[in-house]
């Protein structure tokens, strides 16, 4: 079908209206060869005749069919959106073979916002509404009607110049129109799952940001901490960091693409979808439906990313907390989510995934991606790091700034340490099978042991996690297997990764907990020697009033030491 507007003859140096310009111009060339361009093609409201402008068309309909479009518009006092609804109301009647009686049309007939959705694909009449005389103005004498009239080059140049002047106004009007249509479709998406044709998708406007999720807006009564958490994910920087983490992103991509048979024809739920990357992986792997849920404003960017990549007929974006939104399906086959935080459980997103698992994932057959995570601890000795980052304050250009040290030992530091800093054997202290674990399993106290291998004094402890992607919920991962050992057992098609110090750095890095020796018993740092057997406990707890935070407490001592002989310290992740 012909474009609603011929392309602009601008040199394209201005990008202020690029999005609207691309919409209006469609797939046409840059406009250098005017002999190949087509003018506006307005299809009659009552039959299949085509006209060069809207006024000629409405005049024709009035004279031949007695259909006074302008008269009804003025009688009902319709604005821009009301006129769009009237156009689609008439076209739907004609399409259904029903008589059009304009005298019987009432304002109540046009209240349904579904009438904002065009009945006729690329309806040029909607685009040309501003060409019609305003209410109360006398209609100018329509020129002689000629079907499929091709204007001369001078006439096309004149129209293009006029369109350039009107483009800013039209862009604003149609941005508002797009928003209204998108909101309407978001409210009705569960009722109409017809996939769009590739042509319609290519020529339609990109979807505008929409606040609606499942048709109702909920007052956000979240505590300030929760509000900040979601707002922090609305910015590009954090998503760029995660996407550039190739260890992370490649693992999800490889598992999904290597297991297309698992995803083909399935319904997938993506929790915390961010930019939509995991949803698009799933759609490309053959998923029949993907539900992308995020409570951050990034969902608006995800919606556009999905649309621009031609996957909006498979993926539906829903803004809101997974605990509060209503999904259009009772169950899903697969839940995919990148929920992991620093030291694995910081930010407390996993409880939301477990909630969705229990409510939506098909029992017995449903799959969580990833499926397992293991948590590791090892002692650390890194004198250079301590000197550069902690002792630094004791001699700053000759001044003692020990006041600046206050609280620095109380925080878990997120760093990627060299493997040489690891001063003892690592131990897995917790394995989470995401198909069976509960929210209560995320708060715990576990035992750990290590053989100290360094000649230097013990400076602290390092925590990291491994992540595993199993192909079925029946598959298990042995607790003491590292990610690499598991992959060696599974074979080359298996997918897992680590955030530990022995491999490439990820954006999670490791949690470094430095011992504040000044608050420990005098001489205690000298007790741990090379070859010593350390043992102790590690505790994960949620701080009061900060449900997305994490407190980590470690106790340690030489083998056989109990009670008060053991040392302990707590660190805060925030």
UniProtKB/TrEMBL annotation:
Domain Protein arginine N-methyltransferase 3-like C2H2 zinc finger: 74-118
SUPFAM superfamilies reported for this sequence: beta-beta-alpha zinc fingers (SSF57667), S-adenosyl-L-methionine-dependent methyltransferases (SSF53335)
Catalysed reactions, semicolon-separated: L-arginyl-[protein] + 2 S-adenosyl-L-methionine = N(omega),N(omega)-dimethyl-L-arginyl-[protein] + 2 S-adenosyl-L-homocysteine + 2 H(+); L-arginyl-[protein] + S-adenosyl-L-methionine = N(omega)-methyl-L-arginyl-[protein] + S-adenosyl-L-homocysteine + H(+)
Basic and acidic residues biased stretches: 188-202
Protein's UniProt keywords contain Secreted: no
Keyword Protein biosynthesis set for record: no
Pfam families, sorted: ANM3_C2H2_Zf, PrmA, PRMT_C
Region span, Disordered: 1-32, 188-225
Intracellular or extracellular location(s): Cytoplasm, Cytosol
Keywords assigned: Coiled coil, Cytoplasm, Metal-binding, Methyltransferase, Ribonucleoprotein, Ribosomal protein, S-adenosyl-L-methionine, Transferase, Zinc, Zinc-finger
Protein name: type I protein arginine methyltransferase
Organism for this UniProt entry: Podospora bellae-mahoneyi
Gene: rmt3
């Amino acid at each position: 079908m012909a474009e609603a507007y011929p392309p602009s003859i601008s040199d394209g140096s201005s990008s202020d209206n690029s999005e609207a310009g691309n919409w209006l111009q469609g797939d046409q060339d840059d406009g250098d060869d005017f002999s190949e361009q087509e003018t506006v093609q307005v299809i009659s409201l009552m039959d299949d005749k085509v006209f060069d402008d809207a006024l000629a068309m409405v005049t024709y309909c009035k004279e031949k069919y007695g259909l006074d479009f302008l008269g009804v518009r003025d009688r009902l006092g319709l604005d821009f959106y009301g006129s769009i609804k009237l156009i689609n109301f008439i076209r739907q009647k004609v399409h259904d073979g029903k008589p059009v009686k304009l005298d019987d049309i009432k304002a109540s007939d046009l209240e349904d916002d579904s009438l904002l959705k065009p009945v006729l694909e690329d309806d040029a009449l909607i685009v040309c509404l501003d060409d019609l005389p305003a209410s109360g103005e006398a209609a100018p004498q329509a020129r002689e009607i000629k079907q499929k009239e091709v204007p001369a080059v001078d006439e096309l140049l004149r129209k293009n110049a006029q369109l350039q002047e009107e483009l800013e106004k039209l862009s604003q009007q149609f941005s508002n129109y797009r928003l209204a249509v998108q909101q309407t479709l978001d409210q009705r998406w569960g009722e109409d799952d017809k996939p769009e044709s590739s042509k319609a998708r290519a020529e339609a406007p990109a979807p505008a940001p929409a606040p609606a999720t499942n048709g109702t807006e909920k007052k956000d009564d979240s505590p300030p901490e929760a509000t900040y958490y979601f707002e922090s994910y609305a910015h590009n920087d954090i998503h760029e960091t995660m996407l550039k983490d190739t260890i992370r992103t490649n693992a999800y991509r490889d598992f999904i693409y290597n297991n297309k048979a698992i995803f083909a024809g399935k319904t997938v739920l993506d929790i915390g979808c961010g930019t939509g990357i995991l949803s698009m992986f799933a759609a490309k792997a053959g998923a029949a439906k993907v539900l992308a849920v995020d409570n951050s404003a990034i969902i608006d960017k995800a919606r556009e990313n999905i649309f621009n990549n031609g996957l909006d007929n498979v993926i539906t974006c829903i803004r809101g907390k997974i605990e509060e939104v209503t999904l259009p399906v009772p169950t899903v086959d697969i839940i995919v989510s990148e929920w992991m935080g620093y030291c694995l459980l910081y930010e407390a997103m996993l409880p939301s995934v477990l909630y969705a698992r229990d409510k939506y994932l098909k029992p017995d057959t449903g799959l969580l991606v990833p499926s397992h995570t293991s948590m590791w601890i090892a002692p650390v000795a890194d004198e250079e790091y301590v000197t550069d980052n902690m002792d630094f304050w004791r001699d700053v250009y000759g001044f003692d700034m020990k006041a600046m040290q206050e609280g620095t030992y109380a925080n878990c530091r997120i760093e990627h340490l060299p493997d040489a800093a690891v001063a003892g054997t690592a131990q897995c202290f917790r394995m989470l099978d995401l198909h069976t674990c509960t929210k209560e399993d995320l708060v715990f106290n576990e035992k750990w042991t290590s053989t100290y291998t360094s000649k230097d004094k013990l400076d602290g402890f390092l925590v990291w996690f491994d992540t595993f992607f199993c192909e079925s919920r029946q598959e298990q991962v042995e607790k003491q297997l590292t990610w690499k050992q598991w992959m060696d057992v599974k074979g080359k098609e298996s997918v897992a990764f680590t955030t530990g110090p022995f491999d490439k750095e990820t954006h999670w890095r490791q949690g470094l907990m430095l011992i504040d020796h000044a608050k420990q018993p005098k001489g205690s740092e000298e007790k741990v020697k090379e070859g010593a057997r350390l043992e102790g406990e590690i505790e994960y707890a949620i701080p009061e009033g900060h449900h997305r935070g994490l407190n980590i407490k470690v106790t340690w001592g030489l083998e056989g030491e109990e009670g008060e002989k053991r040392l302990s310290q707590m660190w805060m992740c925030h």
